[in-house]
Here is the input.
Amino acid sequence: MEKQEGYKTLDEKQKRYWKKNLRLISGLLAVWALVGFGGGILFAEPLSNVQFFGISLSFWIAQQGAILVFISLILIYAIRMDKLDKEYLDQVKNEKQSNVG
Amino acid sequence: MTVEAITITLVLITFLIYTGIGWWSRVRDTSSFYVAGQNVPTVANGAAIAADWMSAASFISMAGLVAFLGYDGTIYLMGWTGGYVLLALLLAPYLRKFGKFTVPDFIGDRFYSNNARAVAAIATIFISLTYISGQMRGVGIVFSRYLQVDIIVGVLIGMAIVGFFSLLGGMKGVTWTQAIQYFVIILAFLIPAFAISFQLTGNPIPQLAITGSDIVDRLGQIQVDLGMTEYMAPFTDLSLLNVFMITLALMAGTAGLPHVIVRFYTVKSVRSARWSAVWAIVFIALLYLTAPAVGAFAKYNLINTIADKPLEEVQDIEWVNKWETTGLLQFNDLNGDGEINFTSGENNEVVIDGDIIVLSTPEVANLAPFVIALVAAGGLAAALSTASGLLITMTSAVSHDIYYRIFNKEASEKQRLRVGRMTLFVALLIAAYVGINPPGFAGEVVALAFGLGAASLFPVILTGIFDKRMNKEGAIAGILTGLTFTLVMIGLILSESIFGTDGPIIENFFGINAQGVGIVGMILNFIVSFIVSRNTQAPPVEIQQLIENVRAPEVDDKGEIAATKED
Here is the structure.
């Protein structure tokens, strides 16, 4: 686990990977805040007059909807990061091949 | 067979299963003792995280809390699930990549300081101990009602079982046992929920029943008729500011809880850490999406069974009678009219402990005795699984972080394992003591644990990962500020129950109550650590290198990325 290496910063590909990761996290957290704190709390009073399948919309968000959104966010993160990992690996492999060729 | 006999049989069977697993997966080295040798499959780890997390509070108390808070019960529903978004996106993958054993380990190494390590270890021990007291209360309630034994005997039996397989199996045994316990917990929660949902609305799926039928509307109407607050209206029990702050405090607190975080070290790759989080939230949400429905149904049934009914008739009902003897349900016929006045305010004649809502639901709804037994077994599984996870976490804070990393760096594997088991034994005794003599302010203490987690560990772990410039001076100053502020505020606001003053020293902090004040501590932590770190020396080169490495994709020994491997 602990490798002895001199100090080196990330290469270009790794920097891109980290930037994309950060952008993904910010996007998902924006939804987290908007649904949980916006729909469930800050706008609860106006939204409680909106009907959703027979109950008030804000009540549904606060006790059901927000939790469903939270699950989706974590799932999307896992799937997108898998894709990002794969993209990175493909780039590394391509480079190795072109170096050999 | 009586309900009690079926309950004892079912509880014994589940205990035998847990003990068998503890024996089967017993360990001999420290690595498996603390982190299960990092070879637990993702789904099992997700189920174990869920069982670890879903304590007596989630299983026994939460639906009851929601039933009495109505809309504002969302603080628990969103607060205890939304924290996983923070954990999964911001903490878990990176902590796994750092590859440490425990939370104090990460903080001590990242901030190259044994002081930081010690502060984190003490915070871990304190948070875990306060939690355990809550679990033991749950065990006590279940035993005293269903096994008809004294609470002391019940707690001792429970502690013996937890201790037996924790000592034997360490984290690996606990992980596998918890995965099994999850299924007991969730079955015990869902089966009565389906039954009662079908009974009341004709739709067996509780989540659909609360939207597709008029049950919540009817409940709201009855509550208003009885003089209680409107069920679906927001901010009738807590102000908007408090709902906001408490929800955020519970979320950040969840992400800062050492016994949950440590679970993400038990997987084999960063990728598995991400997917463990997915499984964990799915498993947890099964209960959390059902609880609000159970709360509403239970409240509806309860009101219909006792409100405005003759007192003597109600006291003849078997479950009412049995809960009355535990003291968790009381009637005082204040106006002497022989009828039960169930409302809010001073005319209320019913004192009902929220903790009995879930446990009594199957009896109120006249479900089969087997279901009642299953709920008891589920409540015990929830309390025991969380207690064992907390015990292991506390043990590793003492034997690994304090004994091995600070006092005796030459300690052999055998010595560390021995100290670990000794600590576990002592922690077990303390937990048993707290369980038998629960502090009068258990509820406040749990709020305190979340507030402290949010104000101390969460900001430091977060900046440790994302802020390369954060150094030990900043981190230590931040933790101390956050902790001190939150402790002082909680002490002042809850002085009545903690120090026995006549009334609270201050009512609240600018409108924020004790449960939410940890967020102010968290913000102070962020500000202080930022200012201090920017005015002191940058962390050493090797620490900056460590953080660079954490940001790169995970590549294994063969140069392959974890994402290309199947679990």
Observations:
- Residues 54 and 60 of chain A are 10 Å apart (CA to CA).
- Helices of chain A lie at 12-42, 44-47, 57-100.
- Residues 1-5 of chain A have pLDDT under 50 and may be disordered.
- Residues 57-100 of chain A form the longest helix (44 residues).
